[in-house]
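Quick bug: DUF2291 domain-containing protein output formatted oddly.
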Amino acid sequence: MRKRWLAPVALALFLPALAGCKIVQIADQEAAAPAGFNATAYAEGLWIEQALPHFTETARPVAEVLPAIVGDLPSAGAEFGYRPGEGSPWSFVVTGTGVVAAKNTESRAGTMEVTVEGLPDPVVLQIGPVIRGNAVRDALPFVSFQDFTNQLEFADAGKALTAIALAATAPISEAIAVGDTVVFTGAISMANASDRLQVTPVVLEKTAP
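Here's what came back:
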């Protein structure tokens, strides 16, 4: 008998508390939730109209930029590079033509070595699928940390921009073999002279034999 009256009593105690609450349907909760930062949409929104033209229009000959970086990074930065402020990495946008001397795909951070006339050592291109650093993002003067809510959004924007560049160049790099002649445009990021001197390509083409 005790069990039969416990339920009505418990319900009577619960209803007054419930009366002061607002019940929101699950669909309404999802609609009311603020939308998070969409890094992919952000990157896609500026790639064609701003990012790609910036790379193609501001690129300097890699045969001029690389020796300058090796000789004196701050001087090379002042002449050829960009950085948003003191202490930030120097960014360089370069272009060049050369013959593929090596293609390293054993590591997921794959690279391609391109012999360019006028340079004693091959230019190293990052071909992925893992791309180190944020050279693509950091080379764009219109992508500023101040435009983002926090460091995570800024990092996600960098990953999304790099992903677009990789998606455009990966099918081409896969088809390129040692001995092929290629044309490339890409970005270099250097915080210190001891950093790896690598180009993250945003444009990669195989020329006709």
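Actually, after a second look the formatting is fine. The first helix runs from residue 2 to 19. Closing.
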